[in-house]
């Protein structure tokens, strides 16, 4: 059991008419929770580290832990770098064994986005690492990338077709009505746009901002070409922070292991629920 490419898992998802969940981790406990859930559901998962998570955990620790947990739970996983805006870090992650990376140059103009994305694609070819890129802006807050909801731009299908041809990426993150973080109002997904992009590009599409999207909307989006769905905020808040806070207060004997176990279980529970909704149970 080891780290496999995103391309491999997304191909499986396409064949099985489902989507693969991509889950952010911030520490060893929730990485363990994600992989534990994947193993028990016999489902593919993509474990994602953001630039911020890497800074806190350390690159070598992340890669070693992902490999070790994949073996411990006897399940293949993807180790993915989420929203990378730093080319040197992206190259380093590829060199250290990440099997998937996201280059996020979506705040640049079209030509610069293509240039940086191609640099990532060319470098990743050395190891076979998969590459995701973004066209259009998915609004919200994620680590240090702040895109106001007002400025968020939806992906234009014609541009997406050109972008995919110009870059040769493995997956495209699209802006179709979701944002990062918690929604103030339920999101309205632009399903027609997803269909139009899917028809023109024929590559796996990625939905960011999965926290707060209804199960019904997820299923509809999957049927229209979304093959990877990112869930971050829900794990960060309900799978980690709230659990840490509440368990710490509830535990009377100051035993940190009880907090660790509670985080693992909470994350595994959230991920298991998403696996059922995304339809990926049993396909590994
Ligand atoms: Zn995202």
Automatic annotation (TrEMBL):
InterPro entries associated with the record: Aldolase_TIM (IPR013785), Class_II_FBP_aldolase (IPR050246), FBA_II (IPR000771)
Signal peptide bounds: none
UniProt keyword terms in alphabetical order: Lyase, Metal-binding, Zinc
Catalytic residues identified in the record: 82 (proton donor)
Keyword Glycoprotein tagged: no
Gene3D superfamilies: Aldolase class I (3.20.20.70)
Cofactor(s), by name: Zn(2+)
Metal-binding among keywords: yes
Binding site for Zn(2+) 2: 104, 134
UniProt EC number: 4.1.2.40
Superkingdom of the source species: Bacteria
Cited Pfam families: F_bP_aldolase (PF01116)
Annotated residues for binding of dihydroxyacetone phosphate: 181, 209-211, 230-233
Catalytic EC class: lyase
Binding site for Zn(2+) 1: 83, 180, 208
GO biological process, one term: carbohydrate metabolic process
Single GO MF annotation: tagatose-bisphosphate aldolase activity
Cofactor note: Binds 2 Zn(2+) ions per subunit. One is catalytic and the other provides a structural contribution.
Protein name: Ketose-bisphosphate aldolase
Organism lineage: Bacteria, Pseudomonadati, Spirochaetota, Spirochaetia, Spirochaetales
């Amino acid at each position: 059991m080891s780290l496999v490419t995103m391309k491999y898992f997304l191909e499986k998802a396409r064949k099985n008419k489902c989507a693969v969940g991509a889950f952010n981790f911030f520490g060893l406990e929730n990485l363990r929770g994600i992989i534990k859930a994947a193993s028990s559901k016999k489902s593919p998962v993509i474990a994602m580290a953001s630039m911020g998570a890497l800074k806190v955990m350390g690159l070598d620790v992340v890669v070693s832990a992902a490999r070790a947990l994949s073996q411990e739970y006897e399940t293949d996983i993807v180790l993915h770098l989420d929203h990378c805006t730093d080319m040197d870090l992206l190259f380093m992650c590829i060199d250290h064994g990440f099997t998937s990376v996201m280059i996020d140059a979506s705040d640049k103009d079209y030509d610069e986005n293509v240039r940086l994305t191609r640099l990532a694609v060319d470098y990743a070819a050395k190891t076979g690492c998969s590459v995701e890129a973004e066209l259009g802006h998915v609004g919200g807050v994620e680590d240090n990338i702040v895109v106001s909801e007002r400025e968020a731009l939806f992906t234009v299908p014609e541009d997406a077709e050109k972008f995919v041809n110009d870059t040769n990426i493995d997956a495209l993150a699209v802006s179709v009505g979701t944002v990062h973080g918690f929604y103030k109002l339920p999101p309205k997904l632009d399903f027609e746009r997803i269909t139009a992009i899917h028809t023109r590009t024929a590559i796996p599409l990625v939905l960011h901002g999965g926290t707060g999207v209804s199960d019904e909307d997820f299923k509809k989006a999957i049927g229209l070409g979304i093959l990877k769905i990112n869930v971050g905020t829900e794990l960060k808040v309900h799978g980690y922070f709230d659990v840490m806070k509440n368990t710490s207060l509830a535990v009377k004997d100051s035993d940190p292991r009880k907090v660790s176990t509670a985080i693992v279980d909470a994350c595994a529970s959230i991920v298991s629920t998403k696996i059922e909704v995304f339809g990926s149970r049993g396909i590994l």
